[in-house]
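Incident log, support desk, overnight shift.

02:14 A customer reports that sequence design results differ from what the structure should imply. Their input is reproduced verbatim below. On-call engineer (initials T.W.) acknowledged and began investigating.
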């Protein structure tokens, strides 16, 4: 009996010891956190830029709401650094701030990012994805995208709010067409095309004695990439960390424009339609067996008239899912017919059709 009571006593002692150790650890952890917060505030208040950079770095890693507010406030203070030279301490300070804000997933007024959008567009896009930006702000920033990667990101942000203005803009900028294949008999082949792209790379080094800073670049999908906005084509970014007093390679990709196929994918998503149905609406391909020029021309005109109605129906259905203030009535769309003559013997020339104007509604 004595042994049993002794064991129970030992267990109670062990429980109290563990509780005491955990409480002590929590106290030490809390004291350490308070000490680090105090140190971060001291560095942030320093007139020395390198000290400020370390203060931002430390504040970004502590994830404290009070320090987050301080970091967001710095967006206003650092506006004077927007025109600073690349590689300067001032520009490095802005990059350090962006790193901390992204690391913290900081909440802020989207308009606070507007002054930085022209120079640091990738970082601004990533931060905007963490906010709830209004349609007007997004459409203003979207006017000058620097390639497909940024266009996709803007489109994905606007898609998130079911933007009617994005829908109208896509309508204005897609190629609406109808391709007629003239053949001697049923069956025709289709040929595909290629694309182009552009890439850039370089070596980046932060100012001397700066803390480690992570650079963010929009990129395509792949291993080690982070999705930051979902959409018909997801938006990704890559991370490159530059250690203190070291350099690292940095690359830029995706300066080719967004493709017709992607525009149709965004139209389809906004309309609540399938991509295949959207393609059949805006760029159908019709095979016509040659039975004379007059018959071919009549058939083409019938198909163009049907496509006109199909476009109007598609847009009418789309209005049910669109939001925001947008103007679509009175919009003039241009439907261009193309004739792909695949007859083995083309003695009689094919019909020549003029573009059709589709005025909405």
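02:41 Re-run completed on a clean worker. Output:
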């Amino acid at each position: 009996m004595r042994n049993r009571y002794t064991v129970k006593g030992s267990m109670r002692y062990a429980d109290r010891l563990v509780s005491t150790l955990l409480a002590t650890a929590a106290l030490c952890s809390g004291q350490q956190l308070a000490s680090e917060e105090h140190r971060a505030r001291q560095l942030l208040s320093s007139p020395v830029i390198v000290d400020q950079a370390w203060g931002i770095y430390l504040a970004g890693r502590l994830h404290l709401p009070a320090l987050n507010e301080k970091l967001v406030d710095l967006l206003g203070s650092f506006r004077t650094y927007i025109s600073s030279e690349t590689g300067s301490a001032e520009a490095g300070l802005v990059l350090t701030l962006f790193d901390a804000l992204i690391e913290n997933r900081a909440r802020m007024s989207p308009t606070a990012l507007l002054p930085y959008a022209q120079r640091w567009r990738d970082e601004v896009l990533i931060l905007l994805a963490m906010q709830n930006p209004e349609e007007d702000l997004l459409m203003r920033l979207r006017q000058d995208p620097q390639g497909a990667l940024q266009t996709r990101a803007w489109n994905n942000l606007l898609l998130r709010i079911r933007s009617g203005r994005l829908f109208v803009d896509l309508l204005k900028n897609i190629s609406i067409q109808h391709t007629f294949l003239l053949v001697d008999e049923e069956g025709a082949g289709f040929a595909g095309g290629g694309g182009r792209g552009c890439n850039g790379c370089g070596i980046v080094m932060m100012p001397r004695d700066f803390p480690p800073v992570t650079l963010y670049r929009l990129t395509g999908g792949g291993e080690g990439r982070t999705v930051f906005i979902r959409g018909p084509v997801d938006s990704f970014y890559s991370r490159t960390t530059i250690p203190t007093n070291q350099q690292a390679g940095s690359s830029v990709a995706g300066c080719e424009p967004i493709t017709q196929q992607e525009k149709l994918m965004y139209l389809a998503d906004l309309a609540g339609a399938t991509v295949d149905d959207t393609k059949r609406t805006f760029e159908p391909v019709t095979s016509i067996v040659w039975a004379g020029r007059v018959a071919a021309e009549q058939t083409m005109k019938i198909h163009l008239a049907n496509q006109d109605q199909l476009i109007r129906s598609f847009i009418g259905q789309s209005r049910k899912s669109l939001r925001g203030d947008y103007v679509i009535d009175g919009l003039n769309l241009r439907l261009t017919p193309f004739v792909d003559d695949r007859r083995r013997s083309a003695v009689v020339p094919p019909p020549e059709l003029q573009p059709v104007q589709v005025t909405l509604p």
